[in-house]
């Protein structure tokens, strides 16, 4: 049993170190954000300037770390709300400093995890960010990550309504692949 305990202790230490690296990257605003174009299958030109923001981290020696390697750690460490807000803020800052891109933008989707949507302060942060950077709310959609269950559906309902009241749209990301599917459609104003 000593080897099992040693392996478990090493795994916990590795997880804590990884979580701390994620925390530091967020604090230094060093997230790698990508704009994935949203295009129609038949006529891609029919959906100009629509994007979904994707996040990656930069590891040692410049290696790009995919979300499958860091999102589970961030979730277990309770960092999802911090990460989601950092992604939103970095995205808003980028559009504020690139007015031509903002003008050409038709639609930008930003993901929000279940823990984030269940927080009462998120809509305030979104409204503040839009106001601070003078961004048009109608160009932003916040996608609820359907692959994660929302722990507090009542608060999530209030949050979704408040985000919509800011002028943004709300959608379900990866509909049909997660845990809630039709319950989200019935429960939330998306």
End-to-end Cα distance: 50 Å
Strand proportion, as a percent range, falls in 15-25%
Q: Give the helix level as a range of percent.
A: 40-55%
Q: Could you state the order of secondary-structure elements as H and E?
A: HEEEHHHEHHEHEH
Give the averaged pLDDT, no decimals. Answer: 84
Biggest sheet descriptor: 6 strands, mixed
Give the low-pLDDT segments.
none
How many helical elements? 8
| Derived structural class | alpha/beta
Extended strand count: 6
Give the overall silhouette: globular
C-alpha Rg, in Å?
18 Å
Protein topology:
Layout: H1 2-27, E1 32-37, E2 50-58, E3 64-65, H2 67-76, H3 80-97, H4 99-104, E4 107-112, H5 114-117, H6 122-132, E5 140-145, H7 153-165, E6 169-173, H8 182-187
Parallel strand pairs: 2-4, 4-5, 5-6
Antiparallel strand pairs: 1-2, 2-3
Helix pairs in contact: 3-6, 6-7
Description:
Helices cover 49% and strands 18% of the residues. With 190 residues, the chain is α/β, with parallel strands linked by helices. Strands 1, 2, 3, 4, 5 and 6 form a six-stranded mixed β-sheet that branches. Strand 5 (140-145), helix 7 (153-165) and strand 6 (169-173) form a beta-alpha-beta unit. Helix 3 packs parallel to helix 6 (122-132) and helix 6 runs parallel beside helix 7 (153-165). The chain is globular, with a radius of gyration of 18 Å. The model has no long low-confidence stretch (mean pLDDT 84).
């Amino acid at each position: 049993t000593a080897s099992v305990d040693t392996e478990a202790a090493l795994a916990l230490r590795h997880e804590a170190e990884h979580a701390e690296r994620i925390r530091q990257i967020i604090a230094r605003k060093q997230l790698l954000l990508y704009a994935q174009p949203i295009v129609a299958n038949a006529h891609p030109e029919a959906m100009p300037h629509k994007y979904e923001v994707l996040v990656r981290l930069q590891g040692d020696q410049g290696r790009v770390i995919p979300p499958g390697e860091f999102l589970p750690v961030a979730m277990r460490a309770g960092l999802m709300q911090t990460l989601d807000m950092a992604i939103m803020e970095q995205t808003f800052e980028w559009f504020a400093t690139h007015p031509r891109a903002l003008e050409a933008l038709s639609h930008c989707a930003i993901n929000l995890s279940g823990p984030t949507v269940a927080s009462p302060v998120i809509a305030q942060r979104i409204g503040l960010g839009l106001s601070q950077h003078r961004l048009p709310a109608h160009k932003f959609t916040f996608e609820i990550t359907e692959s994660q269950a929302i722990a507090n559906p009542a608060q999530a309902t209030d949050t979704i309504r408040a985000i919509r009241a800011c002028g943004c749209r709300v959608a379900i990301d990866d509909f049909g692949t997660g845990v809630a599917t039709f319950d989200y459609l019935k429960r939330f104003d998306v």
